Amino acid sequence: MPGGLLTDLYELNMAASYLRRDMDGLATFSLYVRGLPPQRGFLVAAGLESCLDFLASFSFTDDELATLEGMGFDDHALTDLAALRFDGEVWAMPEGTIVYSEEPLLEVTAPVAVAQIIETYLLNQITLHTTLASKAARYVLAADGHDLVDFAFRRTHGTEAAMAIARASAMVGFVATSNVEAARRFDLTAAGTMAHAFIEAFPSEREAFEAFAMDHPDRATFLVDTYDTEQGVRTAIATIEALGLRERIGVRLDSGDLDSLARVARTLLDAAGLPQARVFASGGLDEHEVAALIGGGAPIDAFGIGTQMGVSADAPFVDSVYKLTEFDGRPTLKLSSGKASLPGRKQVWRTIGDGEHRDTLGLRDEAGPPETRPVLEPVMRDGRPLAPPPSIRDALRTFQGELARVPAAARRLEHPEQVEVARSTALLELTAETRAAALAKAEIG
Amino acid sequence: MPGGLLTDLYELNMAASYLRRDMDGLATFSLYVRGLPPQRGFLVAAGLESCLDFLASFSFTDDELATLEGMGFDDHALTDLAALRFDGEVWAMPEGTIVYSEEPLLEVTAPVAVAQIIETYLLNQITLHTTLASKAARYVLAADGHDLVDFAFRRTHGTEAAMAIARASAMVGFVATSNVEAARRFDLTAAGTMAHAFIEAFPSEREAFEAFAMDHPDRATFLVDTYDTEQGVRTAIATIEALGLRERIGVRLDSGDLDSLARVARTLLDAAGLPQARVFASGGLDEHEVAALIGGGAPIDAFGIGTQMGVSADAPFVDSVYKLTEFDGRPTLKLSSGKASLPGRKQVWRTIGDGEHRDTLGLRDEAGPPETRPVLEPVMRDGRPLAPPPSIRDALRTFQGELARVPAAARRLEHPEQVEVARSTALLELTAETRAAALAKAEIG
Q1: A157-179 pLDDT, tens per residue?
Q2: How far is B174 from B147, CA to CA, in rounded Å?
Q3: Using an 8 Å Cβ cutoff, are B158 and A157 in contact?
Q4: Are A143 and A168 in contact (CB under 8 A)?
Q5: Residues 6+ apart with CB under 8 A from B15
Q6: Across A99-120, average pLDDT
Q7: What average pLDDT score do residues B236-248 get?
Q8: Do residues A219 and A212 lie in contact, with contact meaning Cβ atoms separated by under 8 Å?
Q9: Hey, are the CB atoms on B161 and A162 less than 8 Å from each other?
Q10: What is the pLDDT of residue B438?
Q11: How far apart are CA A187 and CA A181, in angstroms?
Q12: Residue B162: which residues within 8 A CB-CB, separation 6 or more?
């Protein structure tokens, strides 16, 4: 994995200044989301694994240093950057953890130069994965236990994002993905049958169905809407009967009024003595449409979910930031209008038990309120991971354990309410003191 | 570059069936956008270069074939897939070309199996790059000649998307990017100065500014809003004067009321005899805000544009599709409700001259209306590119030549109107004939 140039130029400018001036004080940066999108009552933390991989191998290749020379970095800076590694500490929420506004997903403590350079990559990856996992979680809520399959590859923002949504959706409970490379990489179940083009390439729909089922008897879900959906279902039934298929059979609806077509399909399949045949629906569905179909009783067994999830269409980003909260033993903050930050190394204290989450944002070194547990854990020290990364299955367990505890008003799909996160007395006191010091700094200019 | 597994499972299912049955007829697939997002009056074609790179090296590695064996593909299928290469023909719009609804950005003609497998990757890449280039173009319209810099890296959907927006924004006229790796890869100008953390890491804003300017006298743009913006501008001026800086100086505003703060900054800078100092603005700006600032006369010289562009926040995808339009010498289409397609190998005939575009969607082999030119060009034959890829500069020239000819109603930022694309008589006739044949196919089931 490359490293050093996956950043914004200003990070390198700042790092060069710090290094030249021997400013090697430890900096703590806190990565959090500054106000959730209005369509989100909670987020699902994700992206940590790629951050830790990046940090563990962070360095500049000779080619990268030559590039920087061409951009005006002098010998002093290049020598300093060449020696740079990430040797710091990371605390983070495990992937799959529920996160609310202002709660750190990750905190880095390292010498300020390297802690600064990694900002861009960490923000990029946490934002990507968290945005997508949070969107996928909404489909899980909508589907109410029905199977969900990731179909997003073709319209995600690149192949990296396609891998991310396959992983993120598995992490919240999707049962399969259409993305073959993602299935290989993350050991997921690959799913898929046929497209309209296949039907069109044969002289008739019937011949296409038969050919497909003969070649792939274990995945005989027939796409029935190429010409006429009801006729397509009848053709699928005829094919199933002709070939004597009994298991792993079904029909896929990809257009039109899915509710009524699903009922038609179900009725025809049942009348043919095929209650085990599944009805699969796809076609640009957002989570509200899935919820409406399920809520309305449409007999759909599984959904293929694509673009709307793959780009998190209703909220394609979160307002993630990476803010300096401590430098060289001093707490820090910025006062910028509407974008002020809170000082100090933090911890999220979450209530234990089965009730709805009540969180307190506090300091890492305080005791925490009674009946709470710390949500952020140390995951890297001296630049080395403290444990192998949790599996996607581990993350799914984390997510499932927490989802039920998200306050109902924050969990609903329409107009979710933001969860109020309390601030500990220790944090409030530190903020007041640090603010006063910053105002004094501003006055001395 | 890997290849074969960057696809959806169903593509491989279909390909395996085609290959097993020796169905090696040539298929033509047309990649186009089925109705623009309501916020878009036009799109900017992009992503072709990565598609051609992918096609030129398309194959399956032994590891990839082993993965497919694990997913249930039998020896026959694996042998067939192992031998597969892309040896077809591609016609496409050059990157930077303006494109309207239903106009093919790209058409592939190749044996059906390989033409099918590549669908997912081609759609993914054309969708990514075209979505981002089209969004970036709106900032160019909004900025009305003022400098624009890409600041999007930290919140794009992954690093691949970050490279894509750096490239796409350069293609429509952005002058620089903050993304160091993209600057290296695409030979762009890298830009950037400092973040708030840098100011906070020093005992005072003044000391931070002086340190930075001493270390980087060629990029002395001071971020002035960490504590108090007006005071920050005064501190920047004092630093500029103390160090005797004359060129490449400026201030950056990143929060608050940018219009009034820019006026304050401009007044202070001018009063200090620094008319050459530039005022730079950033902070989550969408294109409407840029247009309002410029339209209102805010004295802002340049804008840093981040998240809103980097995820195309108001329209994060386009409804791109890849449809079979001809197979084995026969035109094809699908009739699916609301998603019908048009048959045949196509061409976009665009009026020549300086007037607004009037396009006709027709067939590749027809003569085209008078006073028009064909927009799609052959770019690959027998799986080999016909020419080296155009440079980003070439694409920018293409874009600039065409932007002025986008109908004014389609070019406006608010409620743009869709451009009506005519259909040629030959296309209409072919559609009617093919539709009749498809209906007949549907009836025979």
Answers
A1: 999 999 999 999 999 999 999 99
A2: 7
A3: yes
A4: no
A5: B80, B81, B84, B113, B114, B116, B117
A6: 98
A7: 96
A8: no
A9: no
A10: 82
A11: 10
A12: A124, B152, B153, B156, B179, B182, B310
- Name all domains of chain A by residue range, CATH numbers in brackets: 9-132+316-444 (3.20.140.10), 139-310 (3.20.20.70)
pLDDT tens-digit series, residues A19-47: 999 999 999 999 999 999 999 999 999 99
Q: So what's the pLDDT on residue A444?
A: 57
Quick check: A338 pLDDT over 80?
no
Helix (H) or strand (E) holding B98: strand B98-99
pLDDT band at A443 (very low <50, low <70, confident <90, very high): low
Is B445 close to A119, i.e. CB distance below 8 A? no
Render A230-294 in DSSP notation, one character per residue: HHHHHHHHHHHHHHT--SSEEEEE-SS-HHHHHHHHHHHHHHTT-TT-EEEE-SS--HHHHHHHH
Is B333 close to A123, i.e. CB distance below 8 A?
no
Res. B334 pLDDT band, cuts 50 70 90 = confident
A231 Cβ under 8 Å from any chain B Cβ: yes
Strand, coil or helix: A189: coil
Predicted TM-score (pTM) of this structure? 0.97
**ipTM score:** 0.97
Cα of A269 vs its chain's centroid, Å: 37
What pLDDT is stored for residue A438 in this prediction?
82
CB-CB under 8 Å, A445 with B197:
no
Q: How far is A356 from chain B (nearest CA, A)?
A: 31
In sequence order, the 6+-apart residues with CB closer than 8 A to the CB of B185 are: B163
Give the mean model confidence (pLDDT) for residues A311-327.
97
Quick one: pLDDT at residue B339? 72
Q: What is the mean pLDDT of chain B?
A: 95
C-beta of residue B192 within 8 angstroms of C-beta of residue A8: yes
Distance between A293 CA and the closest CA of chain B, angstroms: 18
Structure tokens at B146: 């003022």
Interchain CB contacts (distance < 8 Å): A and B = 354
User: pLDDT band for position B341 (50/70/90)?
Assistant: confident
Whether chain B has a CB inside 8 Å of the CB on A206: the answer is yes
Band (pLDDT 50/70/90 cuts) for residue B345 is very high
For B:297-326, CB contacts with A below 8 A are 307, 310-313, 316-317, 319-320, 322-324
Closest CA–CA distance from residue B396 to any residue of chain A (Å): 22
CB spacing of A197 vs B116 below 8 angstroms: yes
> What is the phi/psi pair of residue A183, to 5°?
-60, -40
Among candidates A190, A255, A337 on the partner chain, residue whose Cβ is nearest the Cβ of B71 = A190
Encode pLDDT of A209-261 as tens digits. Answer: 999 999 999 889 999 998 899 999 999 999 999 999 999 999 999 999 999 99
Q: Are strands A320-327 and A26-33 parallel, antiparallel or unpaired?
A: antiparallel
Q: How many whole angstroms separate alpha carbon B64 and alpha carbon A184?
A: 9
Please state, in angstroms and rounded to a whole number, the distance separating the CA atoms of residues B67 and B235.
61
Contact B132, B164 (CB under 8 A): yes
Q: How far is B311 from chain A (nearest CA, A)?
A: 6
Residue B219 contacts A, CB cutoff 8 Å: yes
> DSSP string of B261-276?
HHHHHHHHHHHTT-TT
Position B179 confidence tier, pLDDT thresholds 50, 70, 90:
very high
By C-alpha distance, the chain B residue nearest A235 is B445
Q: How confident is the model at residue A341 (pLDDT cuts 50, 70, 90)?
A: confident
CA distance B341 to chain A (A): 11
With CA atoms as reference, the chain B residue closest to A224 would be: B336
On whether any CB of chain A is under 8 Å from the CB of B179, the answer is yes
CB atoms A178 and B8 under 8 Å = yes
Whether B417 has its CB under 8 Å from any CB of chain A: the answer is no
Q: How far apart are CA A344 and CA A104, in angstroms?
A: 11
Cβ contact A410:A419 at 8 Å: yes
Relative orientation angle of helices A48-56 and A119-143, to the nearest 10 degrees = 160
